[in-house]
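ok so i was messing around last nite and threw this chain in just to see what happens. nothing serious, just curious
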Amino acid sequence: MLKRRSLGLLPTVLAAPALAQASWPAAGPIRFVVPFAPGGTTDIIARIVTAEMSRRIGQTILVENRPGAGAMLGTGQVARAAPDGYTLVLSVISSMIVGKVLQGDRVGWDPDRDFAHIAMVMSTPYLIMVRPDLPIRSVAELVEAAKREPDRYSYGSSGIGSMPHLVMVRFLQAAGVQMTHVPYRGSAQIVTDIAGGVLPMMVDSLTAASANIRNGALRPLAHSWPERVPSFPDIPTFKELGFPTLVVDGWSGIAAPARTPRPILERLAAAARESLESPDLLRRYAESATAPGRVFLDEAQQFVRDELAAWTPIIRASGASID
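result:
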């Protein structure tokens, strides 16, 4: 009797996902979690991309900022969300790769197993930037000043275990100097504190910092791409300055909880692909010196897998810690 009753319920159970897919996204707005505070790279990119995608899928996409723990808080919330296409996350290297490696088993989710990666949407380098009134105009002068007065200098980043933090850890190790890390929940407040004389420098992405570099609020010393950025040709790379290990790409993507139905993922990927080819989006990306992504669905999943494999030994060898 139990077996017959179970079989009798099976068609209903199987039909539910099909019905959900057929009506998606008519049931309501899509929640798009950004695991950082407003005003930073992730927030800027999320709002540009989701505005374009929203028009293409015919449904509102609401950006929800969930900062904390180096992007791990918001990312983890999406890992546990229902796989119905109504909750997405802006996946970032800080959480998917750096945070996962640093926290290990303390993180209850896996960047490959627990997420369906839909698209890589942007790429940007990281920079060390100083207060414009600071008498430091190059990486060499920064290293010299830090060696002359050990522990005098401090820097801000978007959190312990974030990619900006790790970039600076690697730089300090390579340069043989020490500085004090001051973690924040987002980059906007760091810029405010630098303007107020609270901090001498910060590490952030070019996407988030481009406007402040152009208006003179921040003086860039070097960036982490292997080649110079065409829109900022005067900023040298760490590589050309003698730091070959400081080649880092700050990527962001779109991910859904694992087991989200494939037709929904495909529709989202198609909307992302079209959005990333939009002239308006490309213009706004160019303004912030951001490169658009070109990887989707299975290739995006493999990209995250490869990044995790490549970065794990580097992060562990760096000695970076969240403790």
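not much to say yet. Residues 1-17 have pLDDT under 50 and may be disordered.
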